[in-house]
Amino acid sequence: MDWIITEQSDIGQRLDKHLTGRLTDLSRSRLQDLIRDGHVTLNGRPAKASISLKPGDAISLIIPEATAVAVVAQDIPLEILFEDKDILVLNKPPGLVVHPAAGNPDGTLVNALLHHCDDLSGIGGEMRPGIVHRLDKDTSGCMVVAKNDIAHRRLSEAFAERRMSKIYLAAINGVPKEKSGRIQNLIGRHPVDRKRMATLYDGAGKEAVTEWEQLSVYKECALIRCKLLTGRTHQIRVHMKEGLGSPILGDPIYGHPSRQKIPSSRLMLHAWKLSLNHPVHDQPMSFEAAVPVEYGPWMCK
After folding, report:
1. In this structure, is residue 130 part of a structural domain?
2. Which residues pair with 169 in a beta bridge?
3. Residue 93 belongs to a domain with what CATH number?
4. The whole model's pTM is what?
5. Is 136 assigned a catalytic role?
């Protein structure tokens, strides 16, 4: 794509910042990579990300086609909570990426699932076979995986129509003023930091609703039970930070781990309970992922 700098508000901006504001579907780091690799030119020549724009500057951007990546099966241990011919429910450990992406070509949950389920390939897409929802890399707990196309379609519909119950445990860096509540707002991509989500206004973003309850307190840090009524990216992490004013312990994006009241080697967010109807025979099912040992001080209260 090609365009010329004509708007007064664009003049003097860094090239990478201008691209981030114009191309909201690409992260700033991704755009900086494109600039560094010569896929962005300024007035017909490669340019640095930090160069300031002038009136009449001509920018050209070519996004290279994605290179196909073969997803290989890998023998990675899984904690299976339930399995039949249609679905698999597991307790995902913290630190395990769900599906391959740039920077994580293997060693993911998908690689493990391909080894565990011989016929999973292709269910729901080559790069995300069987995946109908995801947990962040550092979040642990319940996940359901589809093992055939019918299960994948019906589970996807159930998530979209909010016909599942998802309850999380979050240990936060502080104690809320109230004992329980409901946070409801609009969440979308942060306008500057594309790695983060944020509360947005003026109709921007998508509805995000979390019901929460304080379970216990340890060393001025509260354990919060969160019930998700929607499933937005980083929803609980944003709601704890912006709604309760206390980020989740160990959160490197929305918090400051070095300033925490309690040190934490992981993000203290756990997908504790998951309830759904079986996608084929419609039987109500409930699952619970054992509470990790790191939550011990709060669970003993």
Report:
1. yes
2. 225, 270
3. 3.30.2350.10
4. 0.76
5. yes
